[in-house]
Amino acid sequence: MLKISNKIFKGCMFGLTALILLGGCASKNPPTDKILSAESAISRASENKAEIYDPLNLKIAKEKLQKAKELMKEKKYEEASMLAEEAEVDAQLAEEKSRTKETKKIADEILDSINALKEEIERLRK
Fold first, then answer.
1. What is the phi/psi pair of residue 44, to 5°?
2. pLDDT of 29-42, one tens digit each?
3. What pTM does this model have?
4. What string of DSSP letters covers 65-104?
5. Residue 38 contacts by C-beta under 8 Å, 6 or more apart in sequence?
């Protein structure tokens, strides 16, 4: 009975040690891919006029990305990774809001043109 308990204990200790080591390895890799994704998302948001239509979320994304880069230099990879992901999401939000507002602006301009044409037609009929 003691041998079985000892084997189980050793197996559990081995498994726990392996889990700790694997967990430690995961946080030892710099999240460069997530940083790059956040940078790309910020660039796309800027290309879609987020500075005009949603400057707040774009600013937040840039600040989070900057902080993530600082954390990466401090080798706080897990925190940097999470912040980079947040920056990417904030930038995506800014991009989508910008696209929506730009589309609405274009639609409003088209409606204004249609109304102007209708008025011109009415004026010419008289």
1. -65, -40
2. 999 999 999 999 99
3. 0.71
4. HHHHHHHHHTT-HHHHHHHHHHHHHHHHHHHHHHHHHHHH
5. 61, 64, 65, 68, 84, 85, 87, 88, 91
